[in-house]
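hi! just following up on the protien thing from before. the input was this:
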Amino acid sequence: MILLLRHGETEWNVARRLQGRRDSPLTERGRRQARAVASVVADLVARDAGDWRLVSSPLGRAQATAAFIAASTGLPIETDDRLMEVDCGAWEGRDWTELVDRPGEPLRRGRIFEAPGAESHDQVRARLEDFLATLPPEPDRRAILVSHGVTGRVLRAIYVGLPSDALLDHDASHDAVHRLQNGQIDRFDCEPVD
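and the predicted 3d structure came back as:
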């Protein structure tokens, strides 16, 4: 089983700026989301005895979220670069709406792979497939993964055997936990934090 979640809301999320590998701190709402997610994770872990691992992207926003989960579960935080968000190249730090959400065109998150110097879709998929291959097979797998919006979507698609761009326009909420188990994905929403 994998419990997959996205970091809490950040200042750049609110400002609609592409973060990629750059960082901005969690907002107060993001910290409340991280606490709420940690509570759901602790409950799910308590229901399934076993040796759990908590693995996070090394980026600050994911580490800050993972700290809440570590506090609620007692697990140490491991970091893995393969869980980092997609490198958005020259577009990092720029306004999302001017680059990706083009007026008169449908929103297409896959445009971030078109940025000058960006990591390719195939590169993201390869590093996530490599990471998943290092985890024990089901039913022995018990991992809590703290990652990012695009990375989490691609990872979910890989898990269920879809093309990794199939889920790019799906939700990547800051206040939900996705359980990947037995070839399916279940979503656990947190209590609203607003």
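The first helix runs from residue 11 to 15.
The chain has a mean pLDDT of 90.
cheers
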